[in-house]
Fold:
Amino acid sequence: MTQYIGAIDQGTTSTRFMIFDHAGGEVARHQLEHEQILPQPGWVEHDPIEIAERTNTVIDGGMRRANLTASDLAAIGITNQRETTVIWNPKTGRPWYNAIVWQDTRTDRIAAELARSGKGEVIRKKSGLPPSTYFSAGKIQWIFENVSGVREAAARGEAVFGNTDSWLIWNLTGGTEGGAHITDVTNASRTMLMNLETLDWDDELLSFFDIPREILPQIRPSSDANPYGMTVRRGAFGGEVPICGDLGDQHAATVGQVCFAPGEAKNTYGTGNFMLLNTGTKIVPSNAGLLTTTCYKLTNQPMIYALEGSIAVTGSAIQWLRDQLGIIQVTSDIETLANTVQDNGGIYFVPAFSGLFAPHWRSDARGAIVGLTRYNTKGHLARSALEAICYQTKDVLDAMVKDSGVQLEVLKVDGGATVNDTLMQLQADILGVPVVRPVVAETTALGAAYAAGLAVGFWSDTDEMRRNWQADKRWEPVWNAEQREAGYAGWQKAIERTLNWVDVEN
Structure:
């Protein structure tokens, strides 16, 4: 048996390739950032060609570091930033426009009109999603309406859509020479176009956005014994390897955290924060501002669903402090700076750069720093930025408890920001529950590897994966109830100050 599984993790700010062994241990990795293109306020774009090239580079780097060849890999899984929309010409391989990133808010008028017309309720009932700038369908509509020639090209078979998973799979499996145009149920469920019950594109939803079915990828299971395609010999792997795992990043992290039983949940700390609660084979509508979504579909097993709380800006707020304000030089400096003070000095930072996602869903909100006095320093701003991540998570967790009735006894966490001990301690304090990080914190890539490995028999079943999970560190809450309540009351006041800032009607 080949010894390893490869995983491509195409994220919002970077792309990495990781190699895992049978115990779920990391063998090697290579990671590169890509450019964040910000043409005007509220717009966020990526260059799809740059992402494809960076993907090839990190694969080459990871394979060299591990001294492996394609024959050493049993399979490859892909996980990706969800909702980020690419439309390209399958005959030339060139994108018609930059990728419109999930954080982008240019489609706020499209979302507002859907809500006003009553179509929003149909979208919510069928797809589990509210009409929002977050999801792919509005971005597709915007490109059709604003990029000359795209709609006509689609009619000629010269324009197709995919999120970044589809874009990469198409490129890796041959591109213009027979590349596979597919996606999986988790990515499809983030478009506002897939029916959660039929697990297929829905004609009524397509009509709301005037999107032709022909441009859409085929929907496949997240783990499929029938590979989506084989890597081409001339590509980065230098040989044929089956690609048979595909999951949106947060669904992949749920698999990587082995949340295979109903009621199990995880929280990922990345560019944004995303909490998923496994609801089993049952579709659970949310009454508290969460998303009803797919969780995963492994091989021929039933579809598993989830409740999700999506937070747009967490880690990217730290990146903003680094890149736009320059108060830190590297991201890890935020912890040192935050520890120069004992508390937030009375200030709250609400990073509603893309509006507020779950559980508020307010596209009219914008970022705010409130409570400032001459006493405050950049240390207080750094600490309030970390607290903002934790308070937004509390908003989501409270909604999840309300919807599900499940009281979390411990929060499983993953993602790059979990290396920040101060952040994790604040999270335990603000929630009032223990926080535990696994040995492999990059569970997004691990989940993609698990999906691919399960498809080819590298792992026999989910129980085998569960045995791989090991705790690395645990944080216990130390705040008393009075501290917790006072801090959260201040956060709720700060949230109110961000609302009604943008007039989406005009």
